[in-house]
Amino acid sequence: MNFKRIWAISSKEFIQIKRDPRSLGLALVIPVFLLLIFGYGLSLDIDRVPTVIWDQDASSQLTRDFLLNFKLSKYFKIVRYTDNYRDIDNLIDRNKVLMALVVPKDFSHYLESKKTAPLQLLVDGSDSNTATIAMGYARSVVQKYNADLLTESFAEAGFRPSKTVNLRSRVWFNMGLNSRWYIVPGVISMIIMIIAALLTSICIAREWERGTMEQLISTPVKPQELIIGKFIPYFTIGFFDLSVGVFMARVLFGVPFRGSYFLLIILSALFLTGALSQGILISAGARTQLLASQLATLSTFIPTTLLSGFIYPIFNMPKFVQAVTYLIPARYYISILRGLFLKGNGIQVMWNEAVFLLLFAIIMFSLAIRKFRKKGV
Questions:
Q1: Residue 80: which residues within 8 A CB-CB, separation 6 or more?
Q2: Segment 46-74 mean pLDDT
Q3: Is the Cα dihedral 16, 18, 19, 21 positive or negative?
Q4: To which H or E segment does residue 242 belong?
Q5: Distance of CA 180 to the CA centre of its chain
Q6: Residue 69 CB coordination number (10 Å)
């Protein structure tokens, strides 16, 4: 290979990127935009559940004390009080509330009589996951109230249990259970995969559309030199996007980084090489930028979003789908990023992921060079 020819191709590609505002916007603006949207807009934390209350036993201090547990909880937001089911039905239909709590008129009488008091909970189940979590919050409040009543009854009877269970939970790596710490590393992986493949997928197709590919074919430039020459500018842009993503994660979203920056650079280089080579492979087979960009989007965005563990846990997927996820490169890179950011993992823990990314980079790069053939070579 002739490094002068490689540098000439790279310089030409840098100039084309600089003169193309769409490519610059795609490379520099969209990653920041996606991080802001996903970082602030996407959250798996569910709190301040909008709730309406119908207290049919409002005159009782015991009932008001019970409802105070919901009012003081950060997981519930009491948006309205009502006195009929029609309002509850209307509020749930209009998505004004997610949950309704109906306290019967004899609620305090049951408690004073040492009987089990009924309590009705109405939940909008159109979003089953959110509804399940909201019901879990409500059960926790009720269970805590029951435990307090039981403790009070024991104290009044002068009875103290000789044995109790004291569960002490300790959360590792994310003590506040902040879902943003979980999401942002995945967003960085998604951005690198999609942007890298999308940018390079149109680079060779653009040459065919503009008629400049024939000029390149008539030069002494070899296929591997052309591929590497076009590869270098987008590799530089990819690392710039990675740096911006890591900076925003640390400074803007407060995600801790507990691992090695050297490992981050090496493993990110492998992933970026594979993603860029995949884009070049697509571009070599597509003669139009529209087709190349569509193929790149379909082959990166959907698998990265749905099958990489970015949002949905892989262990909860059907066995067949779990097997498919082993072929998704972003699955391994997301695991690496989360391990570096939150756990401070070393290469001895992540060597499986590193080996797969190395194979991914080698296979994609080899296929890209093999797919692209100049006439007469």
A1: 52, 53, 87, 91, 96, 97
A2: 89
A3: positive
A4: helix 223-247
A5: 8
A6: 15
Percentage of the chain beyond pLDDT 90 is: 32
pLDDT tens, position by position, 286-323: 778 888 888 888 888 888 888 888 887 888 788 999 99
Give the separation between CA 57 and CA 63, rounded to whole angstroms: 7
Q: Contact at 8 Å (CB) between 13 and 236? A: no
Rounded CA separation 333/189 (Å) = 7
Strand (E) or helix (H) holding 302: helix 289-306
Please give the single-letter amino acid code of residue 284: A
Q: Are 279 and 301 in contact (CB under 8 A)?
A: no
- CA 320, CA 208: separation in Å to the nearest integer? 40
CATH number assigned to the domain covering 49-156: 3.40.1710.10
| CA–CA distances in Å: residue 25 to residues 29, 49, 112, 373 | 5, 38, 68, 30
Is the Cβ–Cβ distance between 232 and 270 less than 8 Å? no
Domain residue spans in the chain? 3-43+179-371, 49-156
Write the single-letter amino acid at 4. K
The rounded distance, in Å, linking the Cα atoms of 276 and 200 is 6
Percent of the chain with pLDDT over 70: 92
Band of residue 215 on the pLDDT scale cut at 50, 70, 90: confident
Q: Which of 36, 41, 50, 153 is nearest to 94 (CA)?
A: 50
Residue 25 has pLDDT above 90, yes or no: no
Residue type, 175: M
For 278-290, the pLDDT digits (tens) are: 988 888 777 788 8
Nearest to 232 by CA among 222, 244, 240, 243: 240
Minimal CA–CA distance to 188: which of 253, 114, 142? 253
